[in-house]
Amino acid sequence: MYHQFVPDVSVIIAVYNAMPYLTECLESVMAQGFGPDRLEVIAVDDGSTDGSGAELDHFAARHPQVRVLHQPNSGGPGAPRNRALDLARGRYVFFVDADDMLGPEALQRLLAMADAQGSDVVLAKQVGLGRSVSEKAHKHAPEADLYTSEVYRSLHSAKLMRRTTIEDARLRYPEDLWYGEDQIFVTSVFLAAGKISVVGDYDCYYLRRRDDGGNLTSRPRTAHDTVAHIERVMALVADRVQDPVGRRRMLGRHFRSLLRTALRPAVTARHGDPAYTAEVYGRARTLVETYWTPDMGGELARIDWIRLYAFACGPLPAFEQLMEYDPAKEPAPREFVENGRVYRCYPLFRDPVAGLPDVLFDVTGQLKTQHQLASMTWQGRRVRLTGHGWIQSLGTDRMDSELVLRERDTGHEYAVPAAPCPAPELAEREPGLDMAGFLAEFDLATVAGGAPLPPGLWDCFLKVRADGVARTVRLGRRHAPDLDRTARRAKVLAREAGGATELAAAPFFTAYGNLSFEVVRRMIPQSAG
Question: What are phi and psi of 345, to 5 degrees?
């Protein structure tokens, strides 16, 4: 008899020919430490022919909170999941694929996070068993913003979702798709959610690549199957997301998917199945023309941005050549410096036939500036700073640096020359960095063109130039110690006209360990009598 109760979690499992993995999946769910009053399991056998249905019935006979439904094969995972959703009564639902499994404390940790944060969706940290997972998606804990975090990298259904959020928005899986249906459903849930959280410190969910290569429902994929779910989820995002950052990031994620899951197979199939390739190309080009904007380039790896541009604007053979290029199997592309810009020479850089613009290969903005403040001494009004800084992938033989003091509110700047000096500790780790150190000394009473630094908050930056390329970074030390009492004490820079006021400066480290100076105007105490 199926007992009536209101569980904390309804676990939904759509099952199609999942033996022998189904047994391990069910055991992992039943081992979550939830009593029958807190957990219900609704498993839908979607016309299995391998004994999966019998295994489900066996578990249901031993566990009263397990409910099993049998139905003819529907052709995809959407219909069995929807049927289970119609019956679920838990505060939250959690979808498990029949060939995957849960960590022993997964549901407890997810539910605890949801209750503590008031979450509508909680991402479960995933572990790939022969499959790739997005580690970035699970680094935001406990709370994550859909538009500015990386949670949208994960559109797999294995998430704890508040059931009323799903029901209030009348959300269900599309039943006419057998591939990519979870992207549409999970995107809709994300957009309906008020708060999204992440359990990123525990291995909650194990995604398995089956030895037989099977999954929920397996059949030959058509060009329509390849592109249809991307078309629909892009339309959903474009229609529902008004925030420009969120829209750019979410659509950018699907353009990455378009290249990887649609255009790459189409390029591979172009000689054997030209009709398939032509249909994918045509539908993909419509998506680019409809949704692509130049600011989405930053959402793609550089080589993918070049590929997508070549697909939309270049000759088709150039695009196909770029898609066949595998950076993992080729030597790293060299970097070329010209007029203060750095270009990464991927295939077809400045190829006259391809005609791809230089800006696609320009990686100047991606170059990292390694830097650290090593020491600071504060004697009188003079400051002495040492440290190191260099631009990654550029040499140090033609490198120089300077300090920049920038007023936080106005942006006004004063530059201080920095002398190069040896950095033997760096040279030991990486040859060529023996002169990446710097030494800068300056007097705060004269640094402003011979005058004292004016009142304000002055942030300290390091500007590094190498091979004609300049990069400016905030100067700080990795672990900023507290300044001693002497250093904390403000030093007088100048007495002002009339003798009633003076300028005083004091250095401090921000919460991020970055160096700043505070300059204030203060009254000079008058002596009695």
Answer: -85, 70
CA dist 372 → 175, 384, 472, 477 (Å): 55, 14, 13, 5
Answer yes or no: are the C-beta atoms of 362 and 356 closer than 8 Å. no
Q: What six digits make up the tokens of 82? A: 């929807």
141 CB-near residues (< 8 Å, 6+ apart): 197, 198, 199, 200, 201
> Which pair of tokens denotes residue 508?
């401090």
- Two structure tokens written together for 422: 């040896």
pLDDT (tens digit per residue) in 175-207: 988 888 999 999 999 999 999 999 999 999 999
pLDDT digits (tens, 9 = 90+) for 467-519: 888 889 999 876 545 554 445 667 888 887 667 788 889 888 888 889 999 99
Q: 362, 341 in Cβ contact below 8 A? A: yes
Phi and psi torsions of 98, nearest 5°:
-65, -15
Q: What is the pLDDT of residues 69-114, one digit of tens each?
A: 999 999 889 999 999 999 999 999 999 999 999 999 999 999 999 9
For β-strands 92-97 and 66-71, DSSP reports them as unpaired
* Rounded Cα gap, residues 466 and 400, in angstroms: 7
- Which CA distances in Å does 344 have to 361, 374, 400, 415? 5, 32, 23, 31
Say if CB 402 and CB 417 are below 8 A apart.
Answer: yes
> Tokens standing for 70?
């049998």
Residue 392, phi then psi, degrees to nearest 5: -60, 135
pTM greater than 0.90: no
For residue 103, how many C-alpha atoms fall within 13 Å in the half-sphere facing its CB? 21
Q: CA-CA distance, 250 to 480, in Å (whole number)?
A: 37
Residues 6+ apart with CB under 8 A from 230: 180, 183, 254, 257, 258, 261, 262, 287
**More confident call, 214 vs 486:** 214
Phi-psi region of 173 (alpha: psi -120 to 50; beta: other; left: phi over 0): beta
pLDDT of the residue at 268: 95
The answer to whether 121 and 189 are in contact (CB under 8 A) is yes
HSE-up of residue 192 (Cα within 13 Å, Cβ side): 20
Classify strands 101-102 and 143-144 as parallel, antiparallel or unpaired.
unpaired
Q: According to the model, what pLDDT value does residue 529 have?
A: 39
